[in-house]
Amino acid sequence: MGFYGEQIFPRAMDWMLRTPEVGAMRRRALARARGEVLEIGFGTALNLAHYPDAVVKVVGLDPLDALEARVQRRIGEASFPVERVGLPADGRLPFEDDRFDTVVSTYTLCSIPDVARALAELRRVLAPQGELLYLEHGISDDPRVARYQRLLNPVQKVIGCGCQLIRQPHTLVEEAGFHPVERDHWVEPGPRILSEMYSGAARRQP
Fold first, then answer.
1. How far is CA 102 from the centre of its chain?
2. Are 48 and 74 within 8 A, CB to CB?
3. In DSSP terms, which residues pair with 39 in a beta bridge?
4. pLDDT of residue 193
5. What is the signed CA dihedral for 45, 48, 49, 55, rounded to 10 degrees?
6. How far is the C-alpha of 156 from the C-alpha of 27, rounded, in Å?
7. What is the pLDDT of residues 125-179, one digit of tens each?
8. By CB neighbour count within 10 A (0-12 exposed, 13-18 middle, 19+ buried), where does 157 fall?
9. How far is CA 169 from CA 136, 190, 192, 200, in A?
10. Each residue's pLDDT tens digit, 5-47
11. Strands 126-137 and 196-204, bridge-based pairing
12. Distance between CA atoms of 200 and 29, rounded to whole angstroms?
């Protein structure tokens, strides 16, 4: 990914995504987490401080190790074991079927190249009664805002290391074979093209 993708972008994201406001959103999105959790897009471990007591272990999956000292400090502060795993080149998750009680994605579905395949893998490793929890930004339901998002998306993909403005998280999750249990959409303060927020909980369809 080069110096920008490995050093500058992770620092910028770590700074922007550890505000009290984002922390409150994380806590709400992760409130249903329990048991053994698989977190994709583990990043700089910002979710660890917001998991509820029902979590017994987190397995963090990320193709890139960034800001290692910060990550290790946050892992050390967690009240449960944390295991970090890299992503194999073929994209298949290195876990058996039906393993995890909870699967978590925060600010990650926007940047996965083959998001349909990734969600299919998450569905495979999620236990039958487990839940996928997600917190993401996405495309607006206001046509005027969505138009600007589509216009700016090519630029965003470059400066955001693959992050896209035009994905609809609820639709992606449901098209991947998940049934919604909870879903929410709201607009945070700030530029509307970046402030359309989506969160939800979903279970595997039979």
1. 13
2. yes
3. 60, 104
4. 95
5. 180
6. 27
7. 999 999 999 999 999 999 999 999 999 999 999 999 899 999 999 999 999 999 9
8. middle
9. 7, 20, 16, 9
10. 777 888 888 888 889 999 999 999 999 999 999 999 999 999 9
11. antiparallel
12. 7
Q: Does residue 78 contact residue 58 with C-beta atoms inside 8 Å?
A: yes
What is the bridge-based pairing of β-strands 178-187 and 196-204? antiparallel
pTM: 0.94
Asked whether the predicted pLDDT for residue 1 surpasses 70, the reply is no
Q: Say how far apart CA 113 and CA 117 lie, in whole Å.
A: 9
Task: Indicate the SS3 state at residue 51.
Answer: coil
Task: List CB contacts of 51: < 8 A, sequence separation 6 or more.
Answer: 30, 33, 37, 58, 78, 80
For residue 177 the two structure tokens come to 């074979």
Percentage above 70 pLDDT, the chain? 100
The one-character DSSP state at 161 is T
Q: Tokens at residue 141, please?
A: 């339901």
Residues 108, 145: Cα–Cα separation, whole Å: 21
Residue 4: both structure tokens together: 């920008």
Q: What is the pLDDT of residue 10?
A: 80
Identify whether the C-beta of residue 89 lies closer than 8 Å to the C-beta of residue 114: no
DSSP-based three-state secondary structure for 67: coil
Please give the structure tokens belonging to residue 86. 């890299």
CA 94/CA 132 separation, integer angstroms: 18
Residue pointed to by tokens 């990550």:
71
